[in-house]
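User: Show me a protein chain along with its predicted structure.
Assistant: Here is one chain, sequence first, then C-alpha cells.
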Amino acid sequence: MVDIGAIAGLMTSMRSVVEITKAMKDVNDANIIQTKVFELTREIMAAQSCAMEAQMAQSALLERVRSLEEEKAKLETWNTDKQRYEFREVSTGVFAYTPKSGMEDGQPFHMLCANCYDNGKRSSLQATEKLQARRRLHNCPQCKTDYAMEAVPRAAVVVPEMRYDPFGRR
C-alpha cells in the first residue's frame, strides 16, 4: 500500500514545485513586463522626439510666414512709394529717379539710384567732393555706383596760382 506519509511528502514537494514554478513564472512575467515597460518608454520617447521635431518645423514655418508677411508689407509700401517717382535724365547721359511734380510729399529734391530702384530699394544719391572731367560725382551708398553730374565751372576748380619766372625762381 502506498505510504500516506510519502504521499503527503510528494504533495508537499509538488506544492513547492508549483510555488517555485509560479515564482519563476512571476519572475519571468516581471522580466517581460519590464521589457515591455522599456519598449513602451522607448516608443514614448520616440513619439516625444517626433512631436518636438514637428513643433520645431511648425515654429520654423511660422517664422517663415512672419518673414514673408514683413517682406510683403515692405513690397506693398515700396510699390506705393515708387509711384511717386519718374525716371529721367538728371544730367547729360545720367539717369535717375526723381519725385514727380507735386509728389514731393514735403521732402526736398532728391534723386534715387536707378540700379537700386530697379532692385526694389530706395537709395538717395549723395554728392561727393570728387570731380571727374569737371563733373561732380554723386554716389549711391547702397550699390556704390558713382554718377558724374553737374558741369562744374572752371572757376570753381581750385588751381594753385603759378607765376612765370624766366629764371626758374619761385
